Structure formats: structure tokens, C-alpha cells
Amino acid sequence: MAWYNIVIPIVTLIVGAVGGFFVGVFYLRKQLEKMQNDPEMIQRMAKQMGYNLNKQQMTRAQNMMKNQKLPRK
Prior knowledge:
single chain; membrane; mainly alpha
């Protein structure tokens, strides 16, 4: 019976980590899909990274994101 005290927490940790990974990937994909259609989000992200995009750069970034195929599960 003592092995239950060791095995169950380890299995729970593994299942939680795998589940959290897939939830994180799903969330990130949804954010990228939203960003493709919202130039303001792209501009905000660029400013957070220290860049200031002009109109031509913004158009190029949008086209790159639209042409990029996100892999599906």
C-alpha cells in the first residue's frame, strides 16, 4: 500500500504537465490566429519587444503571418 503514496503523485504530475502543455499550445495558437487579423495586436507586441513598425513593415508582418501555416493537431 505504501507504493500508492509514491506512484499516484508521480502519475498526477506527469498527467498535469502533459495536459498543461497541450492547453498552452492551444492558447498560443488562438492568440496567433487573433493576431493575424488584428494589426493593433501586432503593433503592441512589436512595441513590447522594442520595435516601432511603420506602415510598410506592418503590412509585411501581417502578410507573413497570414502566409504562415499553423500546424493542426
